[in-house]
Known about the structure:
The complex is a heterodimer.
Chain A: H1 2-29, H2 46-61, E1 67-71, H3 79-90, E2 95-97, H4 104-107, E3 110-114, E4 123-129, E5 132-137
Parallel strand pairs in A: 1-2, 1-3
Antiparallel strand pairs in A: 3-5, 4-5
Chain B: H1 2-17, H2 21-24, H3 31-56, H4 62-83, H5 98-114, H6 122-138, H7 143-147, H8 161-172, H9 178-199, H10 205-225, H11 233-248, H12 253-269, H13 273-292, H14 297-320, H15 337-348, H16 363-368, H17 374-393, H18 398-409, H19 414-426
Amino acid sequence: MRRLILGFLLCWVGFSFLAEVKKAVASYDARQRTWETPAFWRLGMPQPDRLELCLAGVRERVPAGSFVVFASPSGAQGAEFYRWRWAAYLLPEHHVIPPSHRQAGSLAQYFVTYDVRVENPRIEPMWRRPGCRLYRVRQP
Amino acid sequence: MTLLAAALLPVALALAGSLLSRHLAAAGDGALHRVTLYTLAGAVGFHLWVTLLDLAGLPWSPLLLAAPFALLLALFGLEVLRRRRSPAGARLPSDLGWGDGAALFALTVFALLALTAWIATPDFIYHWGVKGHRFELARGVDYGYLAAGWNWALHPDYPNLLPELFAATALLGDGFDAPAMMLWSVVFFGLMLGSARQALREESRFSRQAGLALVALAAAMFGIGHLAAGAADWMLALALMAALPALLRPPDPAGDLQIGVAAAFAAAAKIEGIPLAAFLVLTQLARRALAARRMDPWAASRLVLPGALVVLPWVFQTLRHGLIQPFTSGGFEISRAGKIFPALLESLAVPSWHGLTAAALLLPPLLALHRRTRPLALVAALQLTFYLYAYFTAPVDTRYYVISSFPRLLLQVIPALLVAGVAALARPTGGPSSHSS
């Protein structure tokens, strides 16, 4: 009986393991054709790769340790929040602040907009690429 | 180069930890379990060293990070020369079987997928990875960064062993590299299997092999399906598994230190590792007290000291920098039950566990009917009760909190529960094995 129970469990888990591996390999192979909202982005998907390209340009132009406000469009499933978390991951040398934070206005030295247009008299353009703009923030 | 550092650093941790072999290893412990214990001891030692550097205001450099290892490795060499034999008679596994093969296969598949970073946990992006990279750049735990008001999403109040290991790997290699960091999860998983093997050592050959294959396939299945590479939950699963062999046998001095070190490792890994550490220590203290009818101060110090050395600096730094987050805990609100229990049921049915969450049903029989597995079941039950307490007290979106965390938190207890379940099935009365081989 003991062997039967363990044998059944092993078969169950073995097949489940193989199913997960198959799913993971298939999704990995299709990663460049995958479109997900930011809450479900993964390393290797085209969406975070595109954001990384944008932020690589920011990294080249902004000195390390700067306070950078990162703005992107709001959307379903906390899209703006998760894009901001990805931006913080991709720019660990900077303080990446969401625009909604109460200290954003007072601390901001640079402003990055991603797929969103922002008008503000305090910001002056520094660099741009499609969907991505870097501004310097004039101190009051 | 960073991948090489990620491969070599655990070896250095194990060699450094092996200096405690005389006190840490019990007579019957096999080589794989010893490697696990030594690595945990080395990791705790590493954490204490970098904590000391931070307190002294010294920036981490490859030289400063490597210095204690060089010293300990020299001591290790002297110890080996002095004994002219492998430390304390460690035995390499001589009874390899199909379960070992299945476990190695599951670990290898998990490793290959983890190294692509495709199965990296989202939390690697949101906090573990960014902390590790930031600490590498800051050459220390950057408390100013953690304390910034907008960085609440980083869980700044969490203990930092995992990002410290990431940062050290990056500093000893050639910079932060996400796939290389995933190797740490593979290491924790592999070490967990070493202890699982030890816990099943006295069972019949079939039960031992089946149990090992079961826990390896189950952990790999969930780790791949739920995207758990790079998560700190592996560390808590490892801590509980490393303590399991000592919990399954009558209390002894080596077992006390094993549980003390496992508790310290858990406490250094994650905030819920602190209650896990407390439950491990208290359970073993209670076993000690019940067995001897008095409290042995040496046993108590072996159990409590490693964890205290980890937790006290954490409390100091967390309070000093104001890192405790208001959403971590609040008042107990029974009205949340209406959201918590349906969300728990939803979490238990999460596809990536493939029904193995039913292992939680093993708790009552393991606790009530089986004397040998009772200590482990008690620790697991207390830990699950703590999660429940957190859900009742955290002032956040309760349903989202439960469904986004509970399936992952189960990774911390299910592997050890499966091993205990196999041990109980092999010996339903909890007495000595009739199939020992």
